[in-house]
Amino acid sequence: MKVSVDLIFLVVCFLASLTAFFQKPSPAYLKLFPFYFFVTLLVQQIGTYLSQHSIHNAVLYNVYSIFEFAFNFFVLRLIIQNKGVKGTLLFVLILYPLTACLNLFYFPQGGTFHTVSYAICCSLIVVSCIVYFVELFQLPKAINLKREPAFWICTAILFSYVCTFPFWGLVGFLSTAPPFIIKNLNIILMIINILSYSLFTIAFLCRIRIRKSTL
């Protein structure tokens, strides 16, 4: 099986996330990411295998996207301090998986990606990230963003969803697109994944302090 470049970055990101268990103190949400990245790695491998054997993998990615959005909503709720937004995210966190599962199992997508619910959740994720950044700029004292995991995580989430929204939002129309367009879009998606995984990796490594030796 051919190994893609973004898969290598995902593996590096997964290994970097394991450092959350050895750095103290570590926020609780950081310790959840190794499990998230492991599931992501597993889904990507299964999806690639199905695609190479001409088996539809839309159902796999539909189910995974439900898990992905629920996880991101949960993490953002832990990071954001605004009580109103935290309450809204809790409501979404409970309601979204239920409605998404009902949509998948009782209203089959016909082997296509569920673009409508994906677009709605993308918008909610982006708004939540913006809320975090607004809170960050309103803090009474400055913090070192270079060593703030939440900053890098929200940046990675925001960058990922803003950039991939046009791709996954229009994926239903790509079945009739010329092969060279599909190839170029896949390259762009791979670059987005590489940059996103790089930002996540920074989030887990930014707190590591390297001691300088002295004579």
Q: Could you walk me through the main structural features you see in this protein, from its secondary elements to its overall organization?
A:
By secondary structure, the chain is mainly alpha-helical. It has one domain. 70% of the residues lie in helices and 0% in strands. It contains seven helices and no strands. It has helices spanning 5-17, 33-52, 58-79, 83-106, 115-137, 149-169, 179-205. Helix 1 runs antiparallel to helix 2, helix 3 (58-79) runs parallel beside helix 5 and helix 6 packs antiparallel against helix 7 (179-205). The longest helix has 27 residues, at 179-205. It starts with a helix and ends in a 10-residue tail after the last helix. The model has no long low-confidence stretch (mean pLDDT 84).
* Number of domain modules: 1
Mean pLDDT: 84
Number of strands: 0
Largest sheet: none
Order of helices and strands: HHHHHHH
The number of helical runs is: 7
Cα-atom radius of gyration:
18 Å
Strand content: under 5%
Portion of residues within helices: 55-70%
Unreliable spans are none
Shape: globular
